[in-house]
Amino acid sequence: MDLVALPRLGVVVPPENPTAEPEFNQLLGSGVNVYAARFPGARGAGLRETLQAWNDALPQTLAQFGGMRLDAAIVACSASHYLLSPRGDRAFCDRLSQSAGFPVQSSTQAILAACEASGVERLTLVSPYEPWLTETSRAFWTQAGLDVVGVVPVPAADGFDPYRVTTADILGRIRRHRLRDDAALLFTGTGMGTLPALEALARTTGQVLLSSNLAGAWWTSRVLGKEPGHPLLRRLPPVSRVAAGSSSAQPRPIW
To answer: Can you tell which superkingdom this protein's organism belongs to (predicted)?
Structure first.
């Protein structure tokens, strides 16, 4: 296999995020090369200020790839894009794509594309966020035209920290909630490790299962025209059933 000739995905992640690149590598497999750029650190700033600073820094962070040829890029940070409206988020991605010369997508827009392709109208959020950010997330999806019918908060053992949430935390919280069968489960946030929990749930439910990283990998397969091999991706509409597109591969607006 000629590794240099494989399709290339750029992933932009928060500096402390330990999860995004490993999950993208697992989901996309050996047929795509994944390269990462990290947002600048923001020591001493509050969470909201940090998220806004990452939105401001996104064009410069993408520029870290320099002249490397990329086929697509994902902004693997859902929380910062919840501060934007769905329409503003989409316009932001369009501007980034035009400037970069390749499709650039946020994980939030990838989720919206996956929801549209799957016919999803209702969501149950599984959120590791602080309450204010969970509510910001709920407002984003509601503004996008989706009905958020429930929220499952998933704090870590020592407080709200997506990077410290375990598979046992996720499954334990879900088992204590009565979930609606007609709503997709959305595990929000690229830093919460979700693949083992998703794989366990996939064995027992026919519900649509989505996470920020799963939707990003599905969008990547869509843009690259590659049939997904991972079982979780195969639960979503196959590439052949959705338009791949050559620019930002955005869905039609649903808000």
So the answer is: Bacteria
